[in-house]
Amino acid sequence: xxxxxxxxxxxxxxxxxxxxxxxxxxxxxxxxxxxxxxxxxxxxxxxxxxxxxxxxxxxxxxxxxxxxxxxxxxxxxxxxxxxxxxxxxxxxxxxxxxxxxxxxxxxxxxxxxxxxxxxxxxxxxxxxxxxxxxxxxxxxxxxxxxxxxxxxxxxxxxxxxxxxxxxxxxxxxxxxxxxxxxxxxxxxxxxxxxxxxxxxxxxxxxxxxxxxxxxxxxxxxxxxxxxxxxxxxxxxxxxxxxxxxxxxxxxxxxxxxxxx
Length: 260
Ligand SMILES: [Ca+2]
Ligand SMILES: [Ca+2]
Fold this sequence. Notes:
Elements: H1 2-5, E1 9-10, E2 30-32, E3 44-51, E4 54-63, E5 67-71, H2 82-86, E6 91-94, E7 100-110, E8 116-117, E9 122-127, E10 131-132, E11 136-145, E12 149-153, E13 162-166, E14 169-173, E15 191-195, E16 200-211, E17 215-218, E18 220-222, E19 233-237, H3 243-259
Parallel strand pairs: 1-8
Antiparallel strand pairs: 2-3, 3-4, 4-7, 5-6, 6-17, 7-16, 9-15, 9-18, 10-11, 11-14, 11-16, 12-15, 12-19, 13-14
The chain binds calcium ion (2 copies).
One calcium ion binds at residues 26-27, 73-74, 85-89.
């Protein structure tokens, strides 16, 4: 991650698109040779041509003790569901005892020059935030950083468990162990996040709850330009946090960072 972030940030004039208008397709990758083993923290993967003239570099920044990244993305032929193949779909496994997670960053670079670029404004949908109630109660937990706004379905299973850690850091957690099988496209289990002037995206994918055995969860991030078909969405603009709440959150973050 350090290597990537050190690259010069170049914003292509005229590249910016309206929110939600930028599609990205993650349909194949090669590991970048940087001395790190496949799927270990530090490993970087090149996804060519996620958009016209743009490659994505995906880094595994950190893997918590007891977690394992067992897949960086879904491979294989597109059918039966071509859309799912084009999503970014890593797998994170958590050991039986506690919360586990892995941190990822997607950085965008010019396909020709390799320099950092902005893909303008985009919307990322985190699909199928659910859980598993076999062998305990495991819930998927996703933290997004640097987002401007997010949407979810009113009354959705995850609606009661959305925590703003910071104005631009929001944690989403399933409260529905035993949700749909595989990756559901049901917007009830999805969160849409809006980003502006994006040169990179960072997020944490993990598990919480209890389980008596290791569990592997498949995560599914959708960068399509088609908005999810929410029937009654709630939109939260992240900077609109009251000053009092900000002070409280700042105190919590300080305490959290001192502990870690
Ligand atoms: Ca994919
Ligand atoms: Ca899921």
